[in-house]
Amino acid sequence: MTGRRLAIALLAGLATLAACTAAALLLGPQPISLGAALSGVEPDRAILLGLRLPRVILGALVGAALAAAGVALQALLRNPLAEPFVLGVSGGAALGGTAALAAAAAAGPGSILGAALGSGVSVALGASIGAAGSTALVFALGRIGGKLVPEAALLVGVVFNAFAAGVITVVKVMVPPEEAARLLYWLMGAVGYATPATIATGALFVGVAVAVLVAASGWLNLLSLGDDEASSLGVDVGRSRAIVFLAASLATGAAVALAGLVGFVGLIVPHLLRRVLGPDHRILLPASVLFGAAFLVLADAAARLAFLPLGSEPPVGALTALLGGPLFLWMLRRTEGNA
């Protein structure tokens, strides 16, 4: 029964992702013909293959990573409000990535060391380390009397986000103006036009993280019951939690390195899917990967289309915040009402 439900969920996710990808490739401020683009006619070919396709791949990677991390963190905290952005994990990733970029600026962009520190791999590593550190901090300080208290962990995440934002602001003031502009654009939460090397690096990080989380989805079912219950059922709680922590941090770090602070994807997608698919993480997590990718691809396409009435393109992070902020407040009120 579980295998059948998983197959249906995956087929639905793949179909949704394919539909959103097709829409994102064909729609935009500049209309194109698919036939002309595939036949090599310019500028249709350059727009489709050189601009929109890499951006769609980037959006899918970021959406898949954030949705998978959101599901994992919600299971560990046993709280549907947990999400990388809200918990401060994205803030820690942004702080780590900013540190890498600041170090590159200090070394000199033209130097070999500066180029290495400012590369996509270094920024992704810095973001992943920052995400892991902030995750460990949130879960350590969220304990009261030796037990993890979800509300306390969320509060620690909010405070850490404010701290990280303050440090990043100081760094932006200290670096040269061109580096400050690069940081500002990166932190806005925009799916930009990355190089093939950056996309390949991001795909490697996200692929490894998502594969680990999917493999650990059975553990998440037991860990979501509580540490004592999971331990009594034969789960090595410390080892399992550490693996999930690291994988969720790697996924969040890669997403932030690729697109900056895109919030609430890990809240919106798992919440909607949980209402349809139920709480079984063996189904919920892989489905969230596909639907998270589809969601951000579609949201980024909407951000591009917003150029027509607005005259400028808003970052996709602004759109996800407009959707996720009210949802978070509604879920918070509902949680309080059920308490």
- Tell me the β content: under 5%
Mean pLDDT, all residues: 85
CATH homologous superfamily caption: ABC transporter involved in vitamin B12 uptake, BtuC
Radius of gyration: 20 Å
Shape: globular
Weakly predicted, low-confidence segments: none
- Element-level helix/strand string: HHHHHHEEHHHHHHHHHH
The CATH topology comes to ABC transporter involved in vitamin B12 uptake, BtuC
How many distinct beta strands?
A: 2
Order of strands, widest sheet: 1-2
Termini gap: 33 Å
| Structural domains: how many | 1
Proportion of helical residues: over 70%
Secondary-structure class = mainly alpha
Q: Return the CATH class.
A: Mainly Alpha
CATH second-level architecture: Orthogonal Bundle
Major sheet details:
2 strands, antiparallel
Number of DSSP helical runs: 16
